Every structure is written in structure tokens, then in C-alpha cells.
Amino acid sequence: MKPKIYITRKLPELVVDKLKNAFEVRMWEEEVEPVPREILEKEIQEVEGLYCLLTESIDRNLLTLAPRLKIVSNMAVGYNNIDVAAATEKGIMVTNTPGVLTETTADLTFALLMASARRIVEASDYLRAGSWKTWSPMQLTGQDIYGATLGIFGLGRIGESLAKRARGFDMNILYHNRSRKPRAEEQLGIKYVDKEALLRESDFVCVLTPYTPETENYIGTAELSLMKRNAVLINTARGGIVNEEALYHALKSGQIWGAGLDVFKEEPVRTDHPLLSLPNVVALPHIGSASRNTRLKMALLAAENLIQGLLGETPKNLVN
Ligand code: NAP
């Protein structure tokens, strides 16, 4: 008998077919609506494998309901939605999809940086609203990207790819990790600095660390107060890394100049969220990895991890 798996969202047919070859598959057939918790709680009781997205909280309580579960395959590189410690205690494998989304997410991060610096969304809205009456010297002026200083928190796969793009704009690049990366420093001509120096010296601060207890509220009031008044904060990692209330006050008071956000503490973000009332915020609905090719690669990689795990091999992207 084939092992049973549950898929928490409608996937491309190609991926479902691949999984059906190996498993008895049940799937939440909706594309837009996430699976309700009570359905997930019921489905997980029967299965050996779970294929999930970052929209599902795979917490200790849920795992307790799953006596047969051997593997949770997340279709994302970040896995802060999964209680990995609880899974490990129960002998459940957890996998993610690193690498295949690196370049696409770096593209989006740089796009958000450019859109924020040059007020692209605001300017487009201005034109559509009929406010464009004339060309004038200081109208809709933004910040220069070329030659500016970029500070990257979390110079990992995506951070390095972002640095490559920034080099093309002759940016001066700083980074801060818990550990130094001499190879990247040499190859990319980037400089390691402490957290404070990065905040003080950068015109653009990009957050690309994983979301962990250590990085929760990593950027708060104290950090924002060190940043330049012309600085732009970009977050394409996870919402909880930046304290949203502190960011709102920093933007509103002119402590920093602007922000580009692809991620929020609560997703989907409420449309009456204070940050969305500010013209100097460019906000996106978590689309960092959203190119057609990359999403297909992520979906296939998550399927491969699940297949390897349930067929007795070590999955390629095991995180525990
Ligand atoms: P990665 O290769 O693991 O890089 C993460 C980097 O963060 C590492 O270099 C790590 O270096 C550094 N780091 C970890 N903890 C830190 C801390 N406390 N302080 C400073 N630096 C720290 O991961 P990645 O593939 O580049 O992805 C990064 C994150 O982006 C993911 O975890 C995910 O949440 C997010 N993401 C978002 C989207 C989106 O759609 N918006 C798409 C893809 C990924 P050290 O270990 O030396 O500190």
C-alpha cells in the first residue's frame, strides 16, 4: 500500500501527478483560501507525509495529533511556521526549499529597493489620480541608488545575490551576520561591520536573516534611531524581524525616509494597518519568490524532499 500524504493547497498538476505516483494523496483543493485548521487537524491524523506552505502553523499541538507522521515538507526556504524542536522530539523530519528561489527573491528585493528609493508606486498613483499638472524641479524626488551604501543583515544565499546586483549600481556594500564570510568579502568587495555601524552608515538597510527567536524584533526603536534620516529599510525576510510599531513611528516622524516591505508580522496584513497609511511605504503581499519558474521549482523540490523522506532516503533539504 502506498503511504498517505496530505497537501495543504492546490498545487500545479505536474507536481500532484508526481506525488500521486508515489503516494495516496489527499489535497486541499483551494488556490486562494488556506486550509481551515480543523480540517488540517483531522487530515494530519491519517498521514505519513505533510506537504505544506508557510501559511500553515505546524505547531506542537498539531504534531501531537499525528501518530503516523514521518515528514513535513515546507514549500519555502524559511520554516519559522514549523515547530522544528517539537518535530525533532517526535522523530519527524522537516524539509525546506533553499537555493531554487535565491535569484528570484534577490531580484524582488532589489526591485523593492528601487521602487522605494524612487517612489515608483507613489508616482504611478499620482499620475493615475490626475495630479500630474506639470514638470517641476523637486516633484516626486527620491533617493539615489547608484553609489549609495547598502547594508545587508543576513548575508546568506539571497544576501549574496543581492550584493551582486548592488555591485552593478556601484554601491558600497556592508554586511552583518553572526559569522564573517571572508570568501564573499573577497569576491564581492563587501565589508563586514557590526550591527550598529551598519545601521549608522547605510543608505539602504536590507533584512535577509531567517526569522528565529534571536531575530525577533531585530530592528526596533533603538536600531531605527541609529539610521540616517535619508535611509530606506527593506524587509523581504519575515515580518516579525522588524518591529512594525517602531517602524511606523520612525517613518511617520521622519526618523528614516522610507520602507519597502514584502512581509508582515500578520499575513495577510490588514488593509487598515497603520503602515499602509504612509505614502513612504511600498508594500507587497509576500511575493519574493513569485516567478512562475521559481514557484514550480519550489513545488517540485518540496515534492522530491517528501518522496525521498518517505522512501527511506535522507531528503536533500533536511533541516533537523
Ligand atoms: P540563508 O542562506 O540561511 O541566509 C541567512 C543569513 O542570515 C546567514 O548568512 C546567517 O549567517 C544570517 N543570520 C542568521 N541569524 C542571524 C542573526 N541573528 N544575526 C545576523 N545574521 C544572522 O537564507 P536565505 O536562503 O538567504 O533566506 C533568508 C531568509 O529570507 C529566509 O529565512 C526566509 O525567511 C526569507 N525569504 C523570504 C522570501 C520572500 O518571499 N519574501 C523568499 C525567500 C526567503 P550567520 O549564521 O553567520 O549569522
Report what the structure shows.
The mean pLDDT is 98. The chain starts with a strand and ends in a 10-residue tail after the last helix. The chain is built from twelve helices and twelve strands. It has two domains: 114 residues, NAD(P)-binding Rossmann-like Domain (Rossmann fold, 3-Layer(aba) Sandwich); 182 residues, Rossmann fold. Strands 8-7-6-9-10-11-12 form a seven-stranded parallel sheet, sandwiched between helices. Strands 2-1-3-4-5 form a five-stranded parallel sheet. 35% of the residues lie in helices and 14% in strands. 42% of the residues are buried. The protein is α/β, with parallel strands linked by helices and 320 residues long. Helix 8 links the parallel strand 7 and strand 8. It binds NADP nicotinamide-adenine-dinucleotide phosphate (NAP). NADP nicotinamide-adenine-dinucleotide phosphate binds next to helix 5 and helix 7.
CATH topology value of the largest domain: Rossmann fold
Biggest beta sheet summary: 7 strands, parallel
Overall mean pLDDT stands at 98
Give the amount of beta strand, in percent.
Answer: 5-15%
Index terms:
320 residues, alpha/beta, Rossmann fold, 2 domains, 7-stranded parallel sheet, 5-stranded parallel sheet, 35% helix, 14% strand, globular, binds NADP nicotinamide-adenine-dinucleotide phosphate
List the helices and strands and how they pair.
Layout: E1 4-7, H1 13-22, E2 24-27, H2 37-43, E3 49-52, H3 60-64, E4 71-74, H4 84-89, E5 93-95, H5 102-117, H6 120-128, E6 149-153, H7 157-167, E7 172-176, H8 182-188, E8 191-192, H9 195-201, E9 204-207, H10 221-226, E10 232-235, H11 244-252, E11 258-261, E12 281-283, H12 292-310
Parallel strand pairs: 1-2, 1-3, 3-4, 4-5, 6-7, 6-9, 7-8, 9-10, 10-11, 11-12
Helix pairs in contact: 1-12, 5-7
Bound molecules: NADP nicotinamide-adenine-dinucleotide phosphate.
